[in-house]
Specification:
Layout: H1 2-17, H2 28-48, H3 55-68, H4 70-83, H5 99-109
Helix pairs in contact: 1-2, 2-3
Length: about 120
């Protein structure tokens, strides 16, 4: 259990270190571990925002956190699409209602290329 948490934290911070890296590739593991940690953090914030007297403080912290991980999340999504040999512009499918969740989810669960492609070597 402890090693799993260590891997989660290391992976999370490795994504944050590459926060402006829109080139290269990201593996499924890297992508989904980042998503998992963000989901856990969001759940914790949603619980903390239910506390009556300090609700506003936690909302502000949650909004700041969300803004802080916006660019790293987009960069990771683009690198993930590069791993399946697709342009990062496909991430714009997120802006189309109803299609966004299905299309982007399917693009993120597809296994990446096992060979080097135009976006870089295998992660």
């Amino acid at each position: 259990m402890e090693s799993f948490l260590l891997v989660l934290v290391e992976n999370y911070f490795s994504v944050l270190k590459k926060y402006m890296g829109f080139t290269g590739r990201a593996s499924r593991k890297e992508f989904w571990m980042f998503v998992l940690v963000n989901m856990v953090i969001s759940i914790i914030f949603s619980i903390l925002t239910r506390i009556p007297f300090i609700r506003v403080i936690f909302w502000i912290v949650f909004i700041l956190f969300s803004l802080a991980i916006l660019i790293p999340s987009v960069a990771l999504g683009i690198r993930r699409l590069h791993d399946i040999n697709m342009s990062g512009w496909f991430l714009l499918l997120c802006l189309i209602p109803f299609i966004n969740l299905i299309a982007v989810f399917l693009l993120c669960v597809i296994e990446g290329n096992q060979y080097d492609n135009q976006y870089g070597s295998t992660p």
